[in-house]
Amino acid sequence: MKSPAKTPQRPTFLLVLGKSSRSFLAMTPLLLGVMGLVGLFQVLVTPEMLASLFQDNPLLDTLIGTLSGAISAGNPIVSYLIGGELVEQGISLYAVSAFILSWVTLGLIQLPAEIEVFGGRFTLYRNILSLVFTMLIAGATTLTLQLLT
Amino acid sequence: MKKPEKPFAFRGKYLFLTVLLFYAVLFLINSPSALLALQKSWNVLTKILPILAIVIFVTALINYFLQPKKIAKHLGQDSGINGWLWALAAGVISHGPMYAWYSLLEDLRSHGMKDELVVVFFASRAIKVPLLPVMVDYFGLLFTILLSFYMLFGALLQGLCMKLLQVKKD
Fold first, then answer.
1. Exposed (0-12), middle (13-18) or buried (19+): which is B59, by Cβ within 10 Å?
2. Which chain B residue has its CA at the smallest distance from A79's CA?
3. Phi and psi of A21, rounded to 5°?
4. Of the candidates A103, A112, A109, which has an alpha carbon nearest to the alpha carbon of residue A130?
5. Counting one residue from A and one from B, how many pairs have CB atoms under 8 Å apart?
6. Exposed/middle/buried for B117, CB within 10 Å: 0-12, 13-18, 19+?
7. Cβ pair B62, B110 in contact under 8 A
8. Where are chain A's structural domains?
9. Residue B97: alpha-carbon gap to chain centroid
10. Contacts of A15 in chain B (CB under 8 A)
11. ipTM of model
């Protein structure tokens, strides 16, 4: 009688879950380091400090908005609150759009972790692209809004 | 041949030690600020824990149900337009901070996910669906629609630029 062909044993879901947990556990110092930095930045960089950076020049303010969003950290809802305050203080929408966008897509404090996981070249390309597109999107959004209203 | 399993090793030890050093210095200079920073970090950790649990579970589900070949088919070299749309949609619906997703993306990348799709995923994360009503409240409906549209379009363009950069590199 012909013996049945041997098929590779499929690992159980628990085994796969254990493997995923293990690879996550290995990342614990990396994640704790980033979270520690988030706490430090939330205390040391205040909204007033950010507001004082803007110069009343749309192009320069867009760049400042992008960079200040990139160094800030925390829940995106905080960026809306600060953005709302900045608009009330007369800061241009170019700057505020760039600020709330770069808050989520760029992250200075998570750069070491991103380099560790994805490599230096990928991180460099991604962050440069994100920086350029944040400014472009902020510009396009504000210009279109001005055209439509 | 089966790939040998990587030995377990903690990652980011030096980053963690550097941050500890920052805290130690801040405690010496200004202990109330250091305590407040520590409290804020703790708040971030407690908020992010459920998200991390979901990410671990999703990683396990993907690894259990999708073989590397299938992942490569959906997100790899031959994934076509569908791969771009998957990355875009996954970025929009993904929750929590960017670094919570590093582990899953690293795993998918090792199974063949293209770098340009990782870029699309990260860029499209700028749209936070649960927070859209808050954005409308602060900046208006038209602003929210325009920004969301340009963010989606920009995410795809960033992926395309990454692809061109990769081609140039090769």
1. buried
2. B135
3. -65, -40
4. A103
5. 204
6. buried
7. no
8. 13-148
9. 7
10. none
11. 0.78
Helix (H, G, I), strand (E, B) or coil at B78: coil
Q: Which among B8, B106, B157 has CB closest to A22?
A: B8
Which amino acid would we find at residue B20? L
Report angle CA B75, B80, B86 to the nearest 5 degrees. 50
Length in residues, chain B: 170
Contacts of B41 in chain A (CB under 8 A): 35-36, 38-40
Amino acid at A99: F
Q: Which residues contact B166 (CB under 8 A, 6 or more apart)?
A: B115, B116
pLDDT tens-place string over residues B100-118: 888 888 888 888 889 999 9
C-alpha angle B155-B101-B87 in degrees, rounded to nearest 5 = 35
- Please give chain A's pLDDT, 149 residues, in tens: 445 555 556 788 888 888 888 888 888 898 898 889 888 888 888 777 877 888 888 889 999 999 988 887 777 878 887 888 788 888 889 999 999 999 888 888 889 889 999 999 999 999 999 999 999 999 999 999 999 98
* Single-letter amino acid, residue B124: S
Q: How many CA atoms lie within 13 A of B147 on its CB side?
A: 27
Q: How far is CA A122 from the centre of its chain?
A: 15
The length of chain A in residues reads 149
Which ranges in B7-79 belong to alpha helices (H)? 13-29, 31-65, 68-75
| DSSP code string of A6-72 | P-PPPPPHHHHHHHHHHHHHHTHHHHHHHHHHHHHHHHHS-HHHHHTT--S-HHHHHHHHHHHHHH-
